[in-house]
Amino acid sequence: MLSYQHAYHAGNLADLHKHALLASMLAYLTAKPKQLSYLETHAGRGLYDLAGAESEKTGEAAAGITRALSENWLPADHPLRQALDAVRARHGANAYPGSPLIARHFLRPGDEAHLAELHPAEHQALARVAGFAHLHRQDGFQMAQAICPPTPRRGLLLIDPSYEVKADYDAIPPQIAKLARKWNVGVIALWYPVLTDLRHAAMVETLRRDHPEALVSEVRFPPARPGHGMVGSGMVVLNPPYGLDEEARRIAALF
Fold it and tell me: Where is this site: Interaction with substrate rRNA (predicted)?
């Protein structure tokens, strides 16, 4: 359960979909002066090197963020492009921000951030770039359940598991139901892979049934390599911020 490392996949098409929506939500939430809380259950290391051995081994970033920039999928005023440009100005042209550093770009003094990462090496790397946040080396759902509802009460929770264990798909809807009861005003965003074996389908159907007002955004793309089971990316967002449906349609049309 601790074998997954996102460095092999950073900046891929799934990241592009997930991070475009995340940055759009954060830009909207931070445009208002009220303070907020940002929580993340599976934070990863926060910062990735697209010229590193892991990224070059898979080539997924070349088909993702590199292609998106060359084809102007992200105009200069897009929130993800702004976060990416700021991170590259600080860390170099091959840097790619994970969701914690995307959040860091938007969070303001007085906002609170809680990041959970259980993998020891990933947590250690995260600590080097996430001094703005409270770090938790524990199961991300345990962290979220313990903190919710957070202070400030307004805010966003990103749930982005590795789905290494098939049981995750069954366990997630009850976790989200419990979180939504505790934090009925929170934006709760779940990322999931779209798989050829449809392992994700029952989970998404349960979430649609239990949260009929949620936004569900899915995109499809070719497998990263022959036989690879992931052929798309999905996000379920409870209490989606205004305008997110428009960005979801825009980004989906590019795939």
Answer: 4
Domains belonging to the chain, first-starting first, are 6-254 (3.40.50.150)
51 and 45 Cβ atoms separated by less than 8 Å:
no
Q: What is the pLDDT of residues 142-198, one digit of tens each?
A: 999 999 999 999 999 999 998 988 889 999 999 999 999 999 999 999 999 999 999
Query: What are the DSSP E strand ranges found in the chain?
Result: 37-40, 47-49, 95-97, 112-116, 134-136, 155-159, 187-195, 215-220, 230-238
Residues at the binding site are 19, 42, 99, 117, 139-140, 160
Amino acid letter at 194?
V
Per-residue pLDDT tens over the stretch 38-85: 999 999 999 999 998 888 888 888 889 999 999 999 999 999 999 999
Match 């790397």 to its residue by tokens.
Answer: 125
Q: What tokens appear for 230 in the block?
A: 């992931």
HSE-CB at 169 with a 13 A cutoff on CA atoms is 16
Distance CA 156, CA 31 (A): 14
Q: Indicate which residues carry an active-site annotation.
A: 160
**Ramachandran sector of residue 110 (left: φ over 0; alpha: ψ -120 to 50; beta: rest):** left
